[in-house]
Automatic annotation (TrEMBL), chain A:
Protein name: AzlC family ABC transporter permease
Membrane topology: Multi-pass membrane protein
Pfam family, one: AzlC
Transmembrane segments: 12-33, 53-79, 128-151, 182-200, 206-223
Lineage top rank: taxon: Bacteria
UniProtKB/TrEMBL annotation, chain B:
Residue ranges of the TM segments: 6-26, 38-57, 63-81, 86-103
Organism the protein comes from: Sporolactobacillus kofuensis
Name of the protein described by the UniProt record: AzlD domain-containing protein
Coiled coil: none
InterPro entries per the UniProt record, alphabetical: Brnchd-chn_aa_trnsp_AzlD (IPR008407)
Length: 229, 104
């Protein structure tokens, strides 16, 4: 019992700083969602059912650009590929949860993965820790989305530059992750590819999917080269 | 206009399936390191493509560079590099974009 309490306390302490960051993303998501005609209910429902910052922000931004259901879905599937890695890496650590594992699976996303994988390395399997961390992030995500949606509902998009908030949000998400030649190479390749595709056919729906599929190959190539050089 | 309810349902299923597949099917398998890296680079590529599509806007069959969006992105990027805070950086970027929109 004492140990369970200690686990819960550690999980809370370690989750809190990231929960604040997640709330900031949630706030942006909520505001942006209302710009593509989501209301507070549907914006929050998406957070409740999907619980993925990257998938939701990308979906909303693509809708703003006039994308259809199929291209949004394909892009999200592509984004979700990394959940396969997370799930595979966390499987042993979540193992003792047995039948609850399929519930805990819902919490697999970037931030819980980072915290849980370092926890599992330190103390071994610990589903309770994961459950508490994911739960805190889930609550933070839902309430910040709701707050954002309620704020966004009352703002005049042009006047407050909310249309500008889409690209800026993605720029702010992108830049901190640009570390190492392969990632920077991927980003530069993506700029070129997206530009060429848009040049070839302005406003075409395939730009994001094709760039998402091909630009990482350039990163991979650069990684190989730096490995052997 | 995409039906929001269908979109939410489809994204919820697609995302949950990717999570469960990782835990069940992928668990215990040695994944090719190249595939692992590839999966990790994908979000960067998608985010960049999204930004490019918003800086270069189609207009009458041509691409037009949107200066306010470009300025906003550069300012936002610079702000997060300098101050490491997400929301203030987004606000700073938007403000710079608005200034460019109204004064240039």
């Amino acid at each position: 019992m004492e140990q369970r309490k200690a686990t819960i306390r550690t999980a809370c302490v370690e989750a809190l700083p990231l929960a604040i960051a997640i709330a900031a993303y949630g706030l942006s998501y909520g505001v942006l969602a209302t710009q593509v005609d989501f209301n507070a209910l549907t914006a929050v429902l998406m957070s409740v059912l999907v619980f993925s910052g990257s998938a939701q922000l990308v979906a909303v931004a693509m809708l703003a650009g006039g994308a259809g259901l199929t291209s949004v879905l394909l892009t999200v599937v592509l984004l979700n590929l990394r959940n396969l890695l997370y799930g595979a890496a966390l499987a042993d650590g979540l193992g003792p949860a047995k039948k609850w594992t399929s519930l805990l699976a819902f919490g697999i996303t970037d931030e819980p993965f980072v915290l849980a994988s370092s926890r599992f390395q330190k103390v071994g399997p610990d589903p309770l820790y994961f459950a508490v961390v994911a739960g805190i992030f889930y609550i933070a995500w839902i309430f910040s989305s709701l707050t954002g949606a309620l704020i966004g509902d009352h703002l005049d998009p042009q006047k407050f530059g909310l249309d500008l908030a889409f690209p800026v949000t993605f720029a702010a998400l992108l830049v901190p992750g640009l570390k190492g030649k392969p990632v920077i190479g991927t980003a530069l390749a993506a700029v070129l590819m997206a530009l060429c595709l848009e040049w070839f056919k302005p406003g075409n729906e395939l730009t994001i999917i094709i760039t998402g599929l091909l630009a990482p190959l350039v990163g991979l190539f650069m990684h190989r080269r730096s490995d052997h050089g | 206009m995409v039906n929001q309810w269908i979109l939410i349902g489809v994204l919820a299923v697609a995302t949950y399936v990717s999570r469960v597949l990782g835990l069940t099917v992928m668990a215990g398998r040695e994944l090719n390191p190249a595939v692992r890296l590839y999966f990790n680079y994908v979000p960067t590529a998608i985010i960049v493509a999204l930004i490019v599509k918003q800086i270069f806007i189609p207009s009458g069959g041509h691409l037009v560079l949107s200066l306010p969006v470009l300025a906003a992105c550069l300012a936002g990027a610079l702000a997060i590099l300098l101050f490491k805070k997400f929301l203030p950086s987004v606000v700073a970027g938007v403000v710079v974009g608005l200034l460019v929109r109204y004064f240039l």
